[in-house]
Amino acid sequence: MPIRNAAAADILTLVDLMALFYRESAFSLQRDSAKAAFRRLLADSSLGRIWICEQANEPVGYIVLTLGFSMEYGGRDAFVDDLFIRPEFREKGWGRQLMDTLIKECIRIGVRALHLEVGRANHRARALYRSRGFGDNDRQLLTLKLDKANHESGRHPEAAGIGSS
Question: Which fold has domain 3-131?
Answer without folding.
Answer: Aminopeptidase (3.40.630)
